TrEMBL record:
Keyword field: Ion channel, Ion transport, Membrane, Potassium, Potassium transport, Transmembrane, Transmembrane helix, Transport, Voltage-gated channel
Lineage, uppermost ranks: Bacteria, Pseudomonadati, Bacteroidota, Sphingobacteriia, Sphingobacteriales
Chief place of localization: membrane
GO biological process terms held by the UniProt record: potassium ion import across plasma membrane; regulation of monoatomic ion transmembrane transport
Subcellular location: Membrane
Domain Inward rectifier potassium channel C-terminal: residue ranges: 159-311
GO CC term, one of those recorded: monoatomic ion channel complex
Spans traversing the lipid bilayer: 61-83, 124-149
Protein name: Inward rectifier potassium channel
């Protein structure tokens, strides 16, 4: 059964192919990442290491750095013990455990070029090993510094979208709405938004995925200083016209919101996106106002109301 009763113009693809969605699996996660499980790729790719280290979460990044630091110092501690702990002047450990930790902490001092002087290398082989480790430490810390700079300097978006879309009264009819706001204090200028609906449909007995661009009341603003409520007017030309939630769920509807803006802090263009499934669309509701004027007449934004809605019936 066709979702549309009239002939309309569709986008053939949005980069997700035309395979239908099954079991109401979303195509785009709320954080903007594609909901795709990738197989057949190698577990580790050396040329992709920088990208993974720059894009992974901060806790995971610090865990990787700490783990690498411990592994390297452990390896050199073992090497110092293999060469002979007696070649580390000042090492007073008697048991194997104490000797290992003497070598481990000497390695930590050497790789960071701190060199407290409590323990020092003696002999040609041990000195060569310590010199090599100090050189490795300079390169490693330079690399770690570059990674930290890359993570801090990488332009990222802190635009937050409402958790739900609503179908609320708009002008003489209704409109499909979602809301977004910039969580940073910087300015986003030349902000552009696209809204695309995706749904399953049967064409000539074959299930396919269709994409339909939704017309917005306004798809571009000069400066995002307050919140922005995106409105798709539900007219007779809208795919949501006279559609119930049951019909939307049957077609496994998903709405994509794609944003592009210029960040004046980084002087670069940033991108962000999200999606809403049919179960995240609420009928007969409207968003509560997020801003108001205080006693001094100054505009105040209440970010806690981003997801606040009220019933209209």
């Amino acid at each position: 059964m066709a979702f549309f009763k009239r002939k309309v113009h569709f986008n053939d693809d949005l980069g997700f192919g035309s395979n239908p969605v099954t079991k109401n699996q979303r195509m785009l996660n709320p954080d903007g990442s594609a909901n795709i499980e990738r197989t057949g790729l190698p577990w580790f790719k050396f040329d992709d290491t920088y990208t993974r280290l720059v894009t992974m979460s901060w806790p995971r990044f610090f865990f990787v750095i700490l783990l690498a630091y411990l592994i390297v110092n452990t390896i050199f501690a073992v090497l110092y013990n293999v060469v002979g702990i007696e070649n580390l002047e000042g090492a007073k450990g008697v048991t194997l455990r104490d000797q290992f930790f003497d070598a481990f902490f000497f390695s930590a001092q050497t790789i960071s070029t701190v060199g407290y002087g409590h323990i020092s290398p003696q002999g040609f082989v041990t000195s060569i090993l310590a010199a090599f480790e100090s050189m490795l430490g300079l390169l490693a810390f330079a690399l770690a510094t570059g990674l930290l700079y890359g993570r801090f300097s990488r332009p990222t978006s802190k635009v937050s979208f409402s958790k739900k879309m609503v179908i609320a009264p708009y002008e003489k009819g209704h409109g499909l709405m979602c809301r977004l706001v910039n969580l940073r204090r910087n300015q986003l200028i030349e902000v552009e938004v696209q809204m695309v609906m995706s749904y399953n449909e049967t064409v000539d007995g074959k299930h396919v995925r269709k994409f339909y661009p939704l017309t917005l009341e306004r798809n571009k603003i000069g400066i995002l200083s307050l919140n922005w409520t995106l409105v798709h007017p539900i007219t007779e030309e809208s795919p949501f016209f006279e559609k119930s939630l049951t019909e939307l769920q049957h077609a496994e509807v998903e709405v994509f919101v794609i944003l592009k803006a210029f960040d004046d802090t980084f002087s670069q263009t940033i991108h962000t996106r999200t999606s809403y499934q049919d179960e995240e669309i609420e009928m007969d509701a409207r968003f509560e106002k997020m801003y108001y004027h205080n006693e001094e007449g100054k505009m105040v934004m209440d970010y806690s109301k981003l997801d606040k809605v009220t019933r209209t019936v």
